[in-house]
Amino acid sequence: MGTTEKIDGELVNCESSQDMFNGVKNIVSSVRRMHKQQNLSKKLISYSDTRVSGAYEMLIVFLNVFDELPTILEVKLLSIYSQIDKDLLHDICDFLFPFNTVLEILSDIKRPTLHRALPFKQFLVNKCNINDDDREGLKQLKSFLAQKLDEKWELTDEHLIATLIHPNLKHFQMCPHLKERAILLLKQEMIKIQGVISTRTSTTIHSSIIPSSTSSVPYSSSSTSTLINRSSSARKNLLLEIFYKKSAVPEKTSVEQELEKYLASTSVVQDEEQDDILLYWREHQELFPLIASIARDILAIPASNTSVERLFSSCKNTVTDKRTRLGTEKLNKLMFLQKNLDVLKKKFDVKSIETNNDQETKRKHDAIMLDDQSTSKKLKLLDTPINHQNNSEDIVNVPSEDDKETI
């Protein structure tokens, strides 16, 4: 939800929600600029165009402190505040909550997410259905977002295949009209994979065969027996033509057999919360080898570009003014290590890797220890009793010249 009247040349037609959004945005920016939000139970969040969920984050915090705001607002801001419909604000926050949740789930970089895109899109489309008791501002917003979901969120062939190769989603409960198309796409991919495997196998077999010299086989047969055999064969074929023949059922290919076997399988991912689809295909790769091979490629595609944006941010933090000559190859390696550090630790059983922060902490700790040792030495000297009699600063227990003679 933006603040412009047109998006992509089309009227937004969400006056009520846009007016409310603009009012909230003005109050938030003014309160933050005047440093008055320390009197609130929660800090207000400014709207950011670069964050997809920026509108929801600003509105939900504003709603939580809505009743606290009049005590810190000036007269001009109070006028804007009085025009905001709290009930409409509450309804819009409730409506936007599933959108924010879906964005967070699809931005997960620790597990595959592409298979979730199709059912989640349909879930959000269903949320945009208008109810009779909805306020006018909410109806306008639902209508607008439903249209944009249909226009902007395109579903590719990879989305359909990813949904089909998840055993819990392969029946397309959310959108059954797309199931047949997904099956056809998966079958085509399986045929491609099988062709590649067959080519590799035939090449390997051909290279292992040693050519041998051909030898001629002498031909000897009786012309009479040949004529008899031909006549008998022709008579047999003629009789077969006039009798009823049962139509031959074409034998199913290995691709069709594997696909049908998978679609009829009742195995599912047991822990739906963890949703470890990669583990499922590791366990079933011998039963469905072609589909498992496709799953490895398809499920590696992220559902959102969040991971790419994070890599851009990491690159910006890595290539600083002091590192302007850092090569692209080395930068790629650094980004790979940063992204896969946890995985590499587990794979190579590394217990601890010192980062720059760890080294800095260690240096600070060593410096503190040295200061403590120096301070303790000084305190030990100060704790030693001193004799101030006769303006003398001789340290007690140190023998004087007279004592030395006596000894």
Would you tell me the structural class of the helices and strands?
mainly alpha
| Number of helices in the DSSP assignment | 17
Low-confidence stretches are 213-217, 384-407
* Secondary-structure element order, N to C: EEHHHHHHHHHHHHHHHHH
Q: What does the overall shape look like?
A: elongated
What's the alpha carbon Rg, rounded to whole Å?
A: 39 Å
Short synopsis of the structure:
This protein has 17 helices and two strands. It is mainly α. The protein folds into four domains: 149 residues, no CATH class; 86 residues, no CATH class; 42 residues, no CATH class; 51 residues, no CATH class.
Give a structural overview.
The chain is mostly helical. The chain has 4 domains: 149 residues, no CATH class; 86 residues, no CATH class; 42 residues, no CATH class; 51 residues, no CATH class. The chain is 59% helix and 1% strand. It has 17 helices and 2 strands. A two-stranded antiparallel sheet has the order 1-2. A hairpin with a 2-residue loop joins strand 1 and strand 2. The chain is elongated, with a radius of gyration of 39 Å. The C terminus is likely disordered.
What structural keywords apply?
single chain; two-stranded antiparallel sheet; 2 strands; disordered C terminus; 4 domains; 407 residues; mainly alpha
